[in-house]
Amino acid sequence: MTTQGRARDVQVAGLWKTFDTQRGEQVNALQDIHLSIRAGEFVSVVGASGCGKSTLMRIVCGLIAPTRGRVAVDGEAVTQPRDDVGVVFQNAVLLPWMTVKDNVLMPSDLRSRRRAEHEERAQALLQMTGLTGFESKYPFELSGGMRQRVSICRALMCQPSFLALDEPFGALDAMTREQMNLELMRIWAETGATVLFITHSVPEAVLLSDRVVVMTPRPGRIADVIPIELPRPRSLKDYGSELFNGYTSRIREHLGAQTLA
Amino acid sequence: MATPAESESISAPRRSPSGLRWGRGALLAVALPSITLVVLLVLWDRAVVHFQIPSTLLARPLDVLSELAYGLKTGTLLIHTWVTLQEVFYGFLVGGFAGFALGALVAESTFTRLALYPFLVAFQMIPKVAIAPLFIIWLGYGVSSKVAFTASITFFPVVINTIVGLRSVDSEVLEMMRVFRATRWQAFYRVKLRFALPYLFASLEVAMVLSVIGAIVAEFVGATKGLGYLILQEMHQLETARVFAVLIVLSVVGIILSWVIRVIARAALFWHESERGMPN
Lengths: 261, 280
Hints:
The complex is a heterodimer.
Chain A: E1 10-20, E2 26-37, E3 42-46, H1 53-60, E4 68-73, E5 76-77, E6 85-88, H2 100-111, H3 116-128, H4 144-156, E7 162-166, H5 174-191, E8 194-199, H6 202-208, E9 211-216, E10 221-227, H7 242-260
Parallel strand pairs in A: 3-8, 3-9, 6-7, 7-8
Antiparallel strand pairs in A: 1-2, 1-4, 4-5, 9-10
Helix pairs in contact in A: 2-3, 2-4, 6-7
Chain B: H1 19-50, H2 61-74, H3 76-108, H4 110-125, H5 132-139, H6 143-167, H7 171-179, H8 184-221, H9 227-236, H10 240-268
Helix pairs in contact in B: 2-10, 3-4, 3-6, 3-8, 3-9, 5-6, 6-8, 8-9, 8-10, 9-10
């Protein structure tokens, strides 16, 4: 896994996104977003639902176009999805008629006919995420946590140097979620990829991130960017430490302020 | 694809929890219809005898059976069944393929949708039986007019369900395909088509039933062979028992054909909710 391509830096400059509602009104989903992610950095975006964080991720991935502004990965403007960007959505979005292995191999199958060259990597990814022995299972035979692990393997298949995750653990129960957090930290350490992590869980963001971006809704704006200076490697023991609580309450102040306003 | 049952259990419960209940259920599934059949046959026979119904109106079950055996032995029934089967088969094939192709065009391209969809809807409103005579005029009394009419009848459910099926694809899955930079063809062939399959098979089951109806109706209108033709012949000679014998052949043909579709659907849709946890 260490033979990753070089990590990418991500630049978001002056990003606006306006949606037309069905009534013909205009809603500012994103307003003047500036964000710069260093190569290999783990950045989380937290905010209440509807603050535009998923929109931000979709623009950064090249899935939708911004109304104004610019996204660049390693200096190259993003106008469509890139080969070196891996994406994980809240739902695992696996293809139900394919086995675990076929799902993981899907991105490479779409690009080349020589499957054998990629099987080794798929196998290694499945091993890294503890899915060895489940290669020939179908998604409906797996638990929610395992499905999301398959989805992460699939995102890592094309050796992404930038990984975008949109509330990947939002649908999981609390215990599975903590376990997945630890796994994600390990994967990040092993691959060295740049990570943009969208979540609505404040502790999750603090535990995982180098920096936490706090967004406020209507219009979606960045309220604060907070560097998390907890020493690594981190573990679940960090939850509840004084430093940790300091970060979470600082973030919650922003999130709380907007509900009162 | 938010499946409601996000259970942490790994094994999917494909069989019913207790084998015992399964066995009893299967036994009942055979025994109960058999009892119903015997009771109905006995009632039928007693009614014919008791009310002295003439055999030209309603034959006794055993007479029907002996006519069936006779027809099979002499080969008359088999010859006509073979003709009707061919009409059903080719009509189903042509109608199914045409329906799928047009459905895919309408679902995938705005241009064809705007150009064709209104006419599809309008054409569907015509009672198909009313146009059967046209096919006889155009294509004659042979097999081809029956195939064409059968195809025109099976066509519609397949078109509509292909369109609905191809549009039912989860938008998240398509977004994921964009992330993988799949081509339009790859997204269609590898994802949309698969998600459309449950709809497609549902329509093929309907189409199979319709194609048998189509062949028989077309034969009624004008034919020299086939089970529909045979029914008319026997009716004119007031051979009611033979009409019933033909009906039995027709229902057996229908059951076998739907069963074939079910088996194929089951194999192709093993991953779909509709097929999971189902016995046999």
